[in-house]
Write a structure and sequence with these properties.
Largest sheet: 7 strands, antiparallel
Shape: globular
Low-confidence stretches: none
Radius of gyration: 19 Å
Oligomer: single chain
Mean pLDDT: 94
Distance between the termini: 30 Å
CATH superfamily: Electron Transport, Fmn-binding Protein, Chain A
CATH topology: Pnp Oxidase, Chain A
Structural class: alpha+beta
Strand order of the largest sheet: 3-2-6-9-10-5-4
Helix content: 10-25%
Number of strands: 14
């Protein structure tokens, strides 16, 4: 396969979505939980969550703000200032996937897709009970990306919940044991398998690589 820039523009929409979304490889599958000012819970799957820094501890994700299509997650985050990021557990992949359907704002994806909201430590947004890795976020800022009308939503971590059995020495999270899931494209899901772990890379301590 070889596509040029012109081929990409002319491609069938669905095929183009699948190819371009899959090019970056396996990404983390996360459910973002939020709640509106009048108490309607919302849950949506995202594959764009990224680490932006550890001090302060901030994460970002990409969202397309409301235009013709309602963006309940975006609206709820702006209203309340809080949201959660939850790893998709391998046992909940199908349920998580269908949170991407377009439900009215007053309909809970938790209820429709068979997942359970969980409130912890008086945090103002719902976590996903089925997830083993749960993160409570406070909205910090929105950075618009004019070229395609999306925005980078940046938040600071306020809570992290991970069972002790999934934590390894030095703060490493064993994502295989936690049954966290990866996603490629729009609808292909992968199990995570830990294959190797290396020490921090220093130029003065390189192994003897074969040439």
């Amino acid at each position: 396969m070889h596509w040029t820039k012109e081929d990409i523009k002319k491609a069938n929409r669905i095929e183009r979505l699948n190819v371009i979304n899959g090019l970056t490889g396996i990404k983390p599958a996360n459910l973002i939980g939020s709640i509106s000012s009048n108490g309607h819970e919302n849950l949506a799957i995202f594959s764009s969550v990224v680490h932006l820094g550890s001090n302060p501890a901030i994460l970002g994700f990409i969202i397309r703000p409301s235009t013709d299509v309602p963006r309940n997650t975006y609206e709820n985050i702006l209203e309340s200032g809080f949201y959660t990021i939850n790893h998709v557990h391998a046992s909940s992949v199908e349920k998580a996937h269908f949170t991407s359907a377009k439900f009215p704002k007053d309909i809970s994806e938790f209820e429709k897709c068979g997942l359970n909201p969980e409130y912890k430590n008086n945090f103002k947004a719902p976590f996903v009970k089925e997830s083993t890795v749960k993160i409570g976020m406070r909205f910090i800022e929105e950075i618009p990306i004019p070229i395609n009308g999306t925005s980078l939503i940046i938040g600071e971590i306020e809570h992290i919940f991970i069972p002790d059995e999934y934590m390894e020495e030095g703060g490493h999270i064993n994502l295989e044991s936690s049954s966290s899931t990866g996603v490629s494209g729009l609808n292909s899901y992968y199990k995570l398998q830990k294959t190797r772990q290396f020490p921090y890379a220093r130029a003065s301590e390189l192994p003897a690589f074969d040439q």
